[in-house]
Amino acid sequence: MSAQSPTMMTEPTPGRRRSKPGSQTALRARNQQRLLEALLTGGPQTQAELSRTTGLSNATVSNIVREMSQAQLVNTEPTTSSGRRALSVRLNDTGAVAAGIDIGRRHVRVVLATLGYQILEEASISLPLGHTADEGMDAAGELFNRVLADAGVERHRVLGAGVGIPGPIDRRTGTVVRGAILPEWVGVNMREDLAARLRVPVFFDNDANLGALAQVTWGPHGGCENLIFVKVASGIGAGLVINGSLFYGHVGVTGEIGHATISDHGLVCRCGNRGCLETVASTSTMIDLLSRTAAEPVSTADIMRQAAAGDPATLRVVDDAGMAVGRAVAGIANTLNPEVIVVGGSLTGLGDTFLDPIRRGLLRHAVPLIGETTTVTMSSLGDRAEALGAASLVLAQAGAVL
């Protein structure tokens, strides 16, 4: 899996003898580097998966893994893949770590991960609704420092921090553009402002993109070449994995399905258009609808609790939202023909109660063959997906840093 990262450094490690081009030693070194890059970007994999990822033969992969294990570069352990016995390969911890930071409308979450894709420490805090960019970045910096201290990790061991926010980012300038669920952040240059607070290299992206990246690195979809991750929360966005890589389009603004028109005569959206998906299916819309007849304002937790209890009004609101999401996703599916659509966000606890109407909406509006052959599933990573994806963003760059 590639995150469209900068080209890996090809200069030999200082102190290492340079091999002659075309020699067996040089070939082994190149093949080992291919396996290292595959493990850095894709996390733990079986030898068969490494063979498919790198294009190397099973025998070559087996020999290189044995050499890397003897050199304590990787750890191996028995596992099961597709019902067969296999050997899982994981990078050994060198002491370097990656940070993943998810800044949302009401929260900040920070995780620390090793090169072997193991979580060292994580924590989250709440943010006030409508917080400014400075408040959000200050909170992220303070929580980052606290997590480092709790894990006993010195700052120089941090390769970098991946950061996600719920909004489109112009990748040419590093600025948040209009349409973000955090309007207070529009025009902010995270590349400069947040790096100054964290004092480590910063890699940033839209949260839905990071959610998609997490599914193919931390989640169960490591071998998936074409995947759509849909985050349903206060806003709705999609991260697109196409041919094994995150897709960014021309300037980085992709997957904005929250602003796909569902009803020409619907409510006016914050983007200025009318009848957008977010006006029908976001958690904010669900909360507004259900709070009208409730004695007290309804929360996201209330939606899940009431749905589990079979409350008719809640089930209707969830069903309508799911059908709308399925309709919007069908448009992307008809274009990309993905293997899997993964649904994440704050409603993952609803399970099939939310997935079933999404599937119905997809089947109704997608080309029949696409609707029938596309798997729709809930993210297994819960509310950690975006932070884990942010850490993966750093790990994907690690070959250029180490």
TrEMBL record:
Pfam families reported in the protein's UniProt record: MarR_2 (PF12802), ROK (PF00480)
UniProt biased composition (Polar residues): 1-10
SUPFAM superfamilies for this protein: Actin-like ATPase domain (SSF53067), Winged helix' DNA-binding domain (SSF46785)
One GO MF term: DNA-binding transcription factor activity
Superkingdom of origin: Bacteria
Residue ranges of domain HTH marR-type in the record: 31-85
Positions of the UniProt region annotated as Disordered: 1-25
Family: Belongs to the ROK (NagC/XylR) family.
Protein name: ROK family transcriptional regulator
Native source species: Arthrobacter caoxuetaonis
